Amino acid sequence: WSTANLSQPRCCLAAASAGNKVVFGGGRYTDTDSSNVVDIFDPLTRDQSTSVLSVPRFYLAAAGTGNNVLFGGGELSGGVGNSNAVDAFDCSNGISCVQVVLTTSPA
Q1: CA distance 9 to 40
Q2: Which of 11, 19, 24, 87 is the most buried (most CB within 10 A)?
Q3: CA-to-CA distance for 23 and 17, rounded, in angstroms?
Q4: 68 touches 52 (CB < 8 A)
């Protein structure tokens, strides 16, 4: 394919690449509702899959490093505040990217 469609129309999403995957996450699909959908595209094999963020949000940030994509922050639905969530996906295996659990050490 030379074009593809996101699984859910939305704006204000974030994108990053990792390995041979391009990953789009979050966004806003109405004036007040944010999305937790993650769309995963592999341009080499033309495979697509989906996953979810832990918290629906828009205006979030994304970064890719090696085979990992991280989504962080963002605004919550309905203007109730900002998110401090960080979601990590390991894109090294197969068609999809697997969400991994991040752990933090006590301060």
Answers
A1: 14
A2: 87
A3: 6
A4: no
Amino acid at 26: G
Q: Which residues of the chain have pLDDT under 50?
A: 105-107
**Which pTM does this prediction carry?**
0.89
SS (H, E, C) the chain: CCCCCCCCCCECCEEEEECCEEEEECCECCCCCECCEEEEEECCCCEEEEEECCCCCECCEEEEECCEEEEECCECHHHCCECCCEEEEECCCCCCCEEECCCCCCC
pLDDT computed for residue 105 by the predictor: 47
CA 61 to chain centre: 9
Reading the block at residue 98, the tokens are 């697997």
